[in-house]
Write a structure and sequence with these properties.
Number of strands: 14
CATH architecture of the largest domain: Alpha-Beta Horseshoe
GO cellular component, one term: SCF ubiquitin ligase complex
Number of domains: 2
Radius of gyration: 25 Å
Pfam families: LRR_8
Helix content: 10-25%
Order of helices and strands: HHHEHEHEHEEEHEEHEHEEEEHE
Strand order of the largest sheet: 1-2-3-4-5-6-7-8-9-10-11-12-13-14
């Protein structure tokens, strides 16, 4: 429970920018203003872009949002969970929907500085359609949708970040998009035509971050992502075509894969070719085989820019080769088959600040090998 003085002693910039920026707008208005010293003075002087709203899709909640509608211009983040409409076409239900639509339209008209929108379950696009006319909107997350793609044709907003998850991203025509997309995340099933439309899009050459699941789709066309630096994949099948896709992304700096098929030492060696990598995450990529020694790490000395490496849950036995990757700051090797001998030369990792070795075969001898790591701040054993 908030009490007078709990927040009053904190600097105003901490209250508004570090704490309240993560809180719901109405809760701030109803509670925080009562316990913050000089609330009104500071609240009126704050510049936009520091408040968010959570909306449950109901008529009552919409009315509550409009009670302080003169402050809605301060809101930059809007999160909405929409309950599915019942298939009830009685007059009362139709009237309720009409009233709700009018209330939502009023809310949207007041959100003149909105930058980030998150919507769950808006299968009819009723709410999304209203928001897509906001020119300040830059980030869009759509969850639990059955996607058609009409929203992609909206040219009012200038979306820089788009996330689609827990739905079916089928037959989307990204080549019709006129947004300056820098980040694209598709955590859903995607058709071949949708992937091809990304390759044909205006934003393909300027895209910087890409996160895709692609369980039933083989990647191709990597050379078209001229400015892509950050790639996350839910599934990598280790085929010649997908290996070619990765090597053709010349500016890749961060790579993360949540599931690697046919995981072996040769594939580890393959990743040593990416000399611009700063972050490599292959955690959880183990399989039932136990012949993965870790010898593929012998060429990781080429990764002179690598600062973070995650090989947790990868069934690796040998990691002594990593002692030559002296640029490493964060190293995660939890849940492997690593023994003390592999840590003998780890004292060379002078820049290491965090090391995770829990659930391995490490004894006191291995811990002694790590005692010379003077920069180490986090050690999990």
């Amino acid at each position: 429970m908030l009490k007078q003085g709990n927040l009053s002693e904190l600097p105003i910039n901490v209250i508004f920018f570090e704490i309240l920026s993560y809180c719901d707008y109405l809760w701030i208005l109803s509670s925080v203003r009562l316990v913050c010293r000089d609330w009104n003075e500071n609240y009126q002087s704050i510049r936009p872009h520091y408040f968010m709203i959570n909306y449950d899709g109901s008529e009552n909640d919409a009315k509550r949002k409009l009670m302080d509608s003169n402050k809605l211009h301060l809101v930059t983040k809007f999160s909405a969970t929409i309950e599915s409409f019942s298939l009830n076409f009685l007059v009362e239900e139709m009237e309720r929907r009409k009233r709700l639509a009018n209330l939502e339209q009023l809310i949207v008209s007041k959100l003149t500085n909105l930058q980030e929108l998150i919507i769950y379950n808006d299968g009819s696009y009723n709410l999304l359609e209203k928001f897509m006319k906001i020119e300040s909107l830059q980030s869009l997350e759509l969850h639990n949708f059955q996607f058609g793609g009409e929203f992609l044709k909206c040219h009012h907003s200038k979306i820089k970040s788009l996330t689609i998850s827990n739905g079916e991203a089928m037959n989307l025509k990204f080549n019709e998009v006129d947004w300056p997309l820098e980040k694209l995340s598709i955590l859903s099933s995607m058709s071949e035509s949708s992937w091809n439309s990304i390759l044909e899009s205006k934003f393909c050459k300027t895209l910087q971050q890409l996160d895709v699941e692609l369980f039933e789709l083989t990647l191709h066309g990597g050379c078209k992502f001229e400015n892509l630096t950050d790639l996350k994949m839910g599934y990598f099948s280790n085929t010649d075509e997908e290996l070619k896709f990765l090597t053709s992304i010349v500016n890749l700096k961060k790579f993360e894969c949540r599931c690697l098929w046919d995981w072996n030492d040769e594939l580890l060696e393959f990743f040593s070719n990416f000399r611009n990598l700063t972050v490599l995450k292959l955690n959880g990529c183990s399989n039932d085989r136990r012949d993965i020694t870790g010898n593929g790490l012998s060429n990781f000395v080429n990764l002179i820019n690598l600062t973070e490496l995650d090989l947790s849950f990868c069934s690796i036995q040998k990691v002594e080769y990593l002692s030559s990757v002296t640029s490493l700051r964060i190293l995660k090797l939890s849940n492997n088959l690593i023994s003390d001998e592999s840590l003998k030369d780890f004292h060379k990792l002078s820049n290491l600040t965090a090391l995770y070795l829990d659930n391995n075969r490490i004894t006191k001898l291995g811990v002694n090998y790590l005692s010379a790591l003077s920069s180490l701040k986090i050690l999990n054993l």
